[in-house]
Amino acid sequence: MTIKEQLAELQKSMRTIVDNVKASGRDFTDAEMTDLEVKAEQAQELKGKIERSEQAKSIMDSIGGLEHNSYNPLTGEPNLTGKKGWGKKAVDSLATLASSSPQGAKSLVSGTVSVPAILSPDLVEAAPRSLLDLIPVASPRISGSARPTDGDSVGFVGRSAGDQMGNVFSFIRQSARTSNAGAVPDGAEKPTSTYTFGPVEDTYRVYANKTEDLPWRYLDDFTALIDILSVQLRDDTLAAIERDVLSGDGLDDRFTGILETSGVQVQAYTADLLTTLSAAKYKLLAHDRNLTGWAFNPLDLQALEMLRENGDNGAFLFKSRADIEGFLGGPVVTSLGLPTGRAMAADWNQAELLPVGDDALVFDGKNRTENNTFRLMFEGRYGLRVKKPFDFVSVDLIP
């Protein structure tokens, strides 16, 4: 229990004592007065702790925030984590590349810098804001290293010689789980449950994004330009990965997405929207499976938000996103990777994204002599595994 929660409980207890005395139309007893005085002192102490905690947070925010959990030993500057840290690393790396050229950015010909993988455990938000925040991310695998198995995997299989990692990985996928566990009388045959597994082999996929040819004169404001472009290249690549995680068809080296994976459960539209969503939820909960979140197309979530009591004229059925999440039983994110009319309820821990090493930001200035332009490119290599397809429910939202 947090300090604020302790204070709220204490204040509630004090109000209960006062309300009981008022309701009975009498004075406080000595025991009640003593109890109130003790609780008042405890409440004052908790308020002091809260105030000091908030002051400490304010001080930390003024020097860069609690994200600065370590410092660069060479520069003394704080190291940023999360997505802000990714953007700063990208900008600093390209700035270093530019500074290594005799006349700065405008004398660059080309170069590549490594940046942290955009799909990284360090970049996952505490409160899910996107689909990729719901899906676990393995620690980036480095070429030549072995990735330990987790009891659900047969390991990753490198297919090239020497210490270079191959492009193929394999894992175990569970396709059925039927429990017959139960008590066994003396002399009776012990029950057998069905747990069906099969090996799956897949390949890592390259996801990339680049700018069109940009005028060389833009490099006069190198830092601002790189800051904008590097983050936009990253975010647009994340959107493409998210789309393929859900709906990728496996063609042209796209992921084979969850919706295209055999064994995913389907909830047909039943009676009305709320009944359908409830039925989908209990396809998981009724079988003692986890529900860690929902994904909707933004327009479908809007339709849910606009539902009214008593048809079209009543109050809104859901007053907030929290109300919707309370009804659905888990956090809600939106994704353009889902077509309108389709949602997904799932234990998203049964999928996993697999980054390979660092990502790359590339500055390409070779066209300067031809047309006075340059390009920026982002590129990374990732895998996707869906371990238990039956823990995903595809939901039809329209009849």
TrEMBL record:
Top-rank taxon, per record: Bacteria
Protein name: Phage major capsid protein
Keywords: Coiled coil
Source organism of the structure: Microbacterium aquimaris
Major site of localization recorded for this protein: virion
Domain spans labelled Phage capsid-like C-terminal: 170-389
Record keyword Iron-sulfur present: no
Family matches, as SUPFAM superfamilies: Major capsid protein gp5
Subcellular location: Virion
InterPro entries to which the protein is assigned, alphabetical: Phage_capsid, Phage_capsid-like_C
Keyword Phosphoprotein belongs to the record: no
Any Pfam family matching the protein: Phage_capsid
Sections of the chain in a coiled coil: 26-56
